[in-house]
Structure formats: C-alpha cells, structure tokens
TrEMBL record:
GO CC terms, sorted: cytoplasm
Enzyme Commission number, as recorded: 5.1.3.15
Protein name: glucose-6-phosphate 1-epimerase
GO biological process, one term: carbohydrate metabolic process
Gene Ontology molecular-function annotations: carbohydrate binding; glucose-6-phosphate 1-epimerase activity
Reactions performed catalytically: alpha-D-glucose 6-phosphate = beta-D-glucose 6-phosphate
Keywords noted in UniProt: Isomerase, Membrane, Transmembrane, Transmembrane helix
Transmembrane spans: 12-30
InterPro entries xref list: Aldose_1/G6P_1-epimerase, G6P_1-epimerase, Gal_mutarotase_sf_dom, GH-type_carb-bd
Sites where the protein binds substrate: R105, Q123, R128
Species this protein is from: Lactuca saligna (Willowleaf lettuce)
A Pfam family per the record: Aldose_epim
Family stated for the protein in its record: Belongs to the glucose-6-phosphate 1-epimerase family.
C-alpha cells in the first residue's frame, strides 16, 4: 500500500469517526443528556425475562427499531446482539457449553477479577462462571433521562466459595443497556465493601461476528506498544498501518484510544468500540491450530470471529475500602465506508 493511499484512508477514517461523534453529540445534547447517559429513575422500555434450557434467567432487551440484546444471568453475560434485520452481531460457538459453571464461548464474557492467567485464580477469574442476580433497587446512576433505552441491572457478590480463593468483599453492579439507535452499552461499577484494599483486572471479552477473519482490519492501534501473550508477554510496538490477520493473535495493547474501529469488508460493516476507564485493548484470535484444541469451538469457527476487548490489564486497579471504580463500554455498528 502506498503512503498516499494510507494517509487518504486514515483521513477518511477520522472523518468518519468525527461525523459519527458529531451526530452522537447533537442527539444527546438535544435530549439534555451526556456521554455517560445510563438511566435512573426514568421509565425504561420493557424487558422480557425467560428461562434457558438450564433454568437460568435470560433477559431480552428490545428497542423500537428492532435491535435486540440477550443477557444471561449465567456470568452476567451478553449472549446476543442483533440489528433491525435480525442479523447477529456477536459470535457464539456452535459447541458452546451453556451449563454452569462452564464459561460460554461467545458473546461478551466478563473477565474479573483476573484477566487470563495473570494471577492465582482460574483463567479469566470467576465472574463469568457465576450466577448473577437481577438488581431491582440499584443505587442511583449519575445523569438521568434515559427513557428511550431498554436496560437491565445485574449484581454479583462473592460467595463463601469465592472468598476462599479471593478473600475480598465487593459488589459488582452491571448495567446492560440497548439504546434507541441500537448501540449496546455495558456499565460496570465495582465497590470495595470490605475492610482492606484489593486489586483486580477486568476485560469485556467481546466476540464480534465477522464474515471471515481474512476480511477484517482494526484501526486505532497502530504505533501502540503491546504485550504479546504468544511470546511470554514480551513488549513490542505495532508496526502496521492497520491490524490484519494471517495467524494466531493474542495481544494486550497498552494505553489504547477511547475509540477503536473494527472493519469487516465482507459484511460491509464497521464496529465502533468506545470505552472509558478501560485503558487497554485485548485482541485475540486462536487461528487454525489452536482452534482445534479448544473443545467448545468448532475447528473452522476461528474464521467467523475476532475478539477485541475493552480492558484494564497491564496495570491492575486498586480499590481501598469504600472506593468504587466505574468502567464503560459502548458498541455501535455502522455501514462501512
């Protein structure tokens, strides 16, 4: 690719982001809202609660234009996000094990209080394996006026079993919200309700559904340092103009921007990732060889997904008694330029 072509495309990308953000800003200003609109006391759109085949509550959010989101209390996990045409935007493996305490392969698992094997706990911590509860009386969120959105509030507290392996008292509150224009928001609030400080890492391990991994590129990570989990977490600098895929990738990009673009040329759509309180971005695809070793993933399914996580991994978050951390992830899907 010529440098002239690259810079032209980069200008288009940033113009695209600017126009998207400008529209987003105008809409929320007219609604007397803010970038952190989360909904509180306003009347929210109705939600539907059913049971899955294992008897676990499954929450369905819908908006007036036809977007929908499904959230399982198993892991507090978003399992599905569909557009107005009923097209699935998140990947879920055909071999996913949805029976607790197994983690579900796909959707948006929440990795807490540990990401990966960076600690003494099981891979990615225990939050994704636990049964969460619906929080019918959540404390007030800042910035009201969210009556055009559909949302559910979930709560996780440590069990006696959890306290044995991670002896810290916390409340993890999660709001999953579907906006009137189809954006998916996840807002996490983690409070230390114990008597001693604790540290944690966290990631929204988002499995995007894509046409084929060879048709995907990611923009926003160029020139960043990353930790390569395939090379003992050694630190490298991203050299490519954009990130494309020809082999296994397992990286933590440090100090990533608030906006990242995932472009799918095959489906001609773009996922925009906006994040706050999540300084890192994890990019993962197992590729052919490793995919064959993953029991809850079909051999060729690695081609249908790319994981791009909003995360706080490189530097853990520490909360003193009574302190609270808030993190926010917003996913938007748009036609590709």
């Amino acid at each position: 690719m010529s440098s002239k072509s690259f810079f032209f495309r980069r200008k288009l990308f940033f113009l695209y982001i600017f126009l998207d953000y400008f529209t987003y800003y105008i809409i929320y200003t007219l609604e007397m809202n803010s970038f952190w609109s989360e909904g509180d006391q306003d009347t929210k759109a109705p939600v539907k609660i059913t049971k899955d085949k294992n008897g676990i509550d499954l929450v369905t959010l819908q908006n007036p234009v036809g977007f929908s989101v499904q959230v399982s209390l198993h892991g507090g996990q978003v399992l599905s996000w569909k557009n107005e045409r009923g097209e699935e935007l998140l990947f879920r493996s055909s071999k996913a094990n949805c029976k607790p305490p197994a983690a579900v392969r796909g959707g948006i698992p929440i990795c807490f209080p540990q990401f990966g094997n960076r600690g003494s706990l099981e891979q990615h911590g225990f939050a994704r394996n636990k049964i969460w509860e619906i929080d019918n009386n959540p404390p007030m969120f800042h910035h009201n006026n969210c009556n055009s959105n559909s949302f559910i509030d979930l709560l996780l507290k440590p069990s006696e079993e959890d306290m044995k392996i991670w002896p810290h008292s916390f409340e993890f509150r999660l709001r999953v919200l579907l906006t009137s224009d189809g954006a998916l928001k996840l807002i996490s609030r983690i409070r230390n309700i114990g008597s001693k400080a604790f540290s944690f890492s966290i990631a929204y391990h988002t499995y995007f559904s894509v046409s084929d991994i060879s048709e995907v590129r990611i923009e926003g990570l160029e020139t960043l340092d990353y930790l390569d989990n395939l090379h003992h977490k050694e630190r490298f600098t991203e050299q490519g103009d954009t990130l494309t895929f020809e082999s296994e990738v397992d990286r933590v990009y440090i100090g990533s921007p608030h906006i990242i673009g995932v472009f799918d040329h095959g489906k001609k759509r773009t996922f925009l990732i906006r994040k706050e309180g999540l300084p890192d971005a994890v990019v993962w695809n197992p590729w052919e060889k490793k995919a064959k070793t993953i029991t809850d993933m079909a051999d060729e399914e690695y081609r249908q997904t790319i994981c791009v996580d909003g995360a706080a991994v490189e530097k853990s978050i520490t909360l003193k008694p009574g302190e609270e951390w808030t993190g926010r992830l917003e996913l938007t899907v748009l036609p590709s330029i």
